[in-house]
Every structure is written in structure tokens, then in C-alpha cells.
Design goal:
two-stranded antiparallel sheet; 279 residues; globular; 12 helices; mainly alpha; 1% strand; 2 strands
Length: 279
Amino acid sequence: MPEAVLSRGAQTPVLRALGFAFTLFILGYVLVPILVTMVMSFNDAAMIRFPVTSWSLRWYADFFGSEQWTDALANSIIIAIGTAVISTVSGVLCAWAFQRFHIPGRDAWYILIMLPLFMPGVVLGLGVAIAFGGLSVGDYALYGSRPLVMIAHSLWAMPLVFMLMEATFKTIDYRVVEASYDLGGGPVRTFFEVVLPMVSTGLVSSLLFAFVISLNEFVMALFLTDRDSQTLPVLMWLSLRSAGTPRLAVASVILALTVFLCLSLIMLWYVRQLRKVSR
């Protein structure tokens, strides 16, 4: 018995060291490419080369002085906002319906909602382009429009929102919801004034996750955008095929900083809610 205790005690430092080494490896694997890209964005050379021999903000001025690149960035942000709204509204309502009501064919509906998440982007992009590419609303052609890209991106973002909110709704104390009904609160008023404040962290997280998914999505956007509506990842791909300038690194830094900002907002909101609960 003492030998077994000593053996476990000897293994603990080894396991800690292995865990620490693995953590460092993952951090390095994730952070090193991002840091290298950030360094390359300050390169004064005409092509992407490492190491950097001269430093400059030349390519940042070039990026924000280019109407093509700033328009692509604006398209990405507008499409990401629209995708976040569509995905969050539909995902939250679906998750609430699954949690509160008896739905005939529940398992089949669940599979149908989750199916797009496991489909390749090239399949979804090509399918949406073929199915809706020839349609128009009056004189407004759907193909190459921002709304069509928003709907396509929602095919990936909405299932993630649904999964997150379904798990979040399961943490609610439904005695509070029933008390609201007993006090005369209708289903709609209870949902907006009682339920949503209790799941605000999950709601904000879902909104920002959907935004990030759309902002960084490339494959579907490649099939569904034209020159006027192309997103920043699409323009980066087209530019990479012709000339690999540090402007690509600048665009990558902008996308990465946007992701970090969204993650920071999620963490700040989470800490804020914890402080409110602890009071």
C-alpha cells in the first residue's frame, strides 16, 4: 500500500510536466503563426519575406487607402452582422421551442437543423448558388447580393447558436418562469423580460460566435459573391494568387484582432454577469 502511494506521488510531477509541455506546444502552435503574420504586416518590402529587414506602416496605409480592400472589409462586417442577427434569432427560437414544447418528429427536426454544420462549405456554397442564383426580387438579383451570403453563412452559424442556447436553456430555474406565468405574464412577455435576461451570457456568446464564423468564412462566399460584394477573405485569396504582398498580412491582422475583440467581449460580459450574481 505505501509503495502504491509513493508510485502515484512520483507520477504526479511527471504528469504535471507533460501537461505543461503540451499546453506550451498548443499555445505555440496557435500563437506563433499569428505573431509572425503581425510582424510581416510591418514589412516595408514589396513581397512577403521573412525575416523582416525594414519596418514600416506602408501597407497599413495602402490597405486603408485602397477602396477595393476597404469595401471588402465593409462587406465582411455587414454580412457578418446580418448573419449574426439571422442565426441568433432563429437559433434562440428553435432552442427555446425544443426545450419547452413537445415537437412531433423531434429527432428528425434536430438532425435537419444540425445537418448543414457537417456539410462541406463547397457543397453548401454550390447548392445555394445553383438553387437561388437565378432568382430575383423585382429588379434585385439575389446572386452576388449580401443577403444571399448572410443566409448561406447562417447555415453554419445557426446550428452552433442552436446547440449553445439549447444547453443554456437547460440551466434555467423554470420555477421562475412558472412564477411569471402565475403572476399574469404571457409567454412573449415572460420570454423577453424573464428568460432572456437569465441567458444573456449565452445569448451574447452566440451572437459573437455567429459574427466571427461569418467574418472568417471563405468557401461559400467564393461561390456567392461578385466583385461588388466580395468579402475580405475572398479578396485575400484572389490577391494571393496574383501577388503576395504584405497587404495580405495587414488583412489577416485585422481579422485576427476582430476575433480577439469578440472573445474579449464574451469574457467581459461573463465576468460582469458573475459579479452581478455574487452581489
